[in-house]
Structure formats: structure tokens, C-alpha cells
Amino acid sequence: MTLMESARATAIRPELKDEHAQKFVLTLSCREQAGIVQAVTTFLFERGFNIDEHQQFDDSLRETLHLRTAFSGSPSYTPAMLEEEFGGIAQRFDMKFSFHDQTQQRVLVMVSKFGHCLNDLIFRWRGGSLGGELVLVVSNHETHRAMAEAAGLPFIHVPVTPDTKADAERRLLELVDEYDVDLVVLARYMQVLSNDLCRSLEGRAINIHHSFLPGFKGAKPYHQAHARGVKLIGATAHYVTADLDEGPIIEQEVIRVDHSYGPSALSTVGQDAEALALSRAVRWHCQHRVLLDETSTVVFR
């Protein structure tokens, strides 16, 4: 059965055009093989669900399929129930899969002295366009306490020194558990996380880097960029891994510049790029649009 035929088989039913219907998302990855889409659409059809959005990517190089299907229907189902009933299909195709409902991802933001990304995330959260729910701001400085608290967010100062780094990271993990955090966002948090912490947060921590990766590393990146006469300023949002700034990339943003931009102007443009790339990455992650694929990602925008 082709995708088009499967779509016809799950055409919108009048009884499912209900604004109170529960909405779900299925994401899965597995080896390419015949019958996957038919199995998914039939599973949903037999349970009275309507497909609202379907995207898939067939990676011919790695011979894998990645799929995201948004669907709606009976509120009597839960993700756990769907996962249990889908287990037989998943086993047959050796799938990595998960079901999600409309529950918003709970987001903890970490920040140091640069506040532009935090400010942008707060603005989008309060406007309802972030896709997740900000629940806490953690910082190794007191600089942005007023910004966080003005938005109604708890602000916790966790200072970091070489002697207290391990204690600070333990405190962070305690806060992740205490606030039931789904995603940690490093919004220009200027501390290198330990390998153990990176492993604890694998797949649920996003960092924003002030350039393309690889790029200008070390101090004063915009001064380095100016000295090299760059024509594009970029920023990279990626998952955090133990390999510093080498995690799977979710989004990159570029802004064209020219010889008239000094270091200060480049920094301003760069901050715009950072805020844009980070907010998109957070939104797509919270909407379950990002699927990890070894060292890279598949992003269903």
C-alpha cells in the first residue's frame, strides 16, 4: 500500500472533527522495509484515529526510515496505552518509537551573563509560540534574576568554581528531578559540563554555539571573525554531548554581513542569529520534530 492509499484509508471522518479530540504524536526510526507506513496507518485507523500530519524520511545511505505522524481521536487513550498496543508492530519491524500527547515539555534554562537568548525564550514562551513550558532559570551568576522573576519564573543561583563544580552539577540534577524537567537549555551558559552530566542529560539538553561548527573557538569570536573579514555570521543549536560542541546539530542560522561591520555590530547580529536558532531548536524538540540519527538529526519542520 502506498502512502497515498494509506492516507485515503484514514481520510477524515466527520465524527473525528472534534476540537476536544486528544492529539498525539508518534515518532519512530527503523531499517527501511516494506509495509511500515501501512502498519502505522492501519494501527491508527483501527483505533478510530485521524491522521493530522504525516512526514517521513527514507535515508538511502543508512537504509533507515524516520517517521513522524500527528493524529487525533479518542481521549480515552494515553501514550502508555498506545505504546503497549503498538509493541507487536514495533517488534516486527525492530523500531525505536515513542508516543506523545499534548502535555508540554517542561524546560529549564541555564544562563550566565549574556541574557539575549533567555530574554527571547521568555518572550516566545509568554506569547505561546515556544512549544514548551519554561519552569526554572538556573545561573552561575545573579545577573538575570530580575529578568526571570519579572516573568514569574523561579531563579536559582548555583555558583560554579573549580572546587564546587561537582556539587553544582549534582544540584542541577536535583533541580531537574524536583521540577520534573524534560529539557535543559543552555542559553549561553558559559560552563563546560562534565562527561557524566552530559551522559545524564543525553538527548534532552540543547546548547547554542556562537558560530557555525566548527568555527571560531576560544575568546572573542567576533573579533576573530572581523579579523578574517567574514561575510556570514552564524549560530548553531545542537544537542549536548561529552564531545564539546560536537553534538548532533538541530538548527543553524546565518545572517549576511560585510566589511562595514565592526566587532560590536557583528556581536549584535550574532546574538540575533543565536536567539533565532535556539528558539527554533527548542520549539522543534518540544513538538517532537527532532529525531536523533547517530551523530546527526532528522528535523521534520
From TrEMBL:
Pathway the protein acts in: Purine metabolism; IMP biosynthesis via de novo pathway; formate from 10-formyl-5,6,7,8-tetrahydrofolate: step 1/1
Active site: residue positions: D245
Keywords: Hydrolase, One-carbon metabolism, Purine biosynthesis
Gene3D superfamilies documented for this protein: 3.30.70.260, Formyl transferase, N-terminal domain
Main enzyme class: hydrolase
Origin: domain of life: Bacteria
Catalytic activity: (6R)-10-formyltetrahydrofolate + H2O = (6S)-5,6,7,8-tetrahydrofolate + formate + H(+)
Keyword Transcription set for record: no
Domain Formyl transferase N-terminal intervals: 106-282
Enzyme Commission no: 3.5.1.10
Keyword Membrane among record annotations: no
Functional note: Catalyzes the hydrolysis of 10-formyltetrahydrofolate (formyl-FH4) to formate and tetrahydrofolate (FH4).
Assigned protein family: Belongs to the PurU family.
PANTHER family to which the protein is assigned, alphabetical: FORMYLTETRAHYDROFOLATE DEFORMYLASE, FORMYLTETRAHYDROFOLATE DEFORMYLASE 2, MITOCHONDRIAL
NCBIfam families: PRK06027.1, PurU
The protein's name: Formyltetrahydrofolate deformylase
Lineage of source species: Bacteria, Bacillati, Actinomycetota, Actinomycetes, Micrococcales
Gene responsible for this protein: purU_1
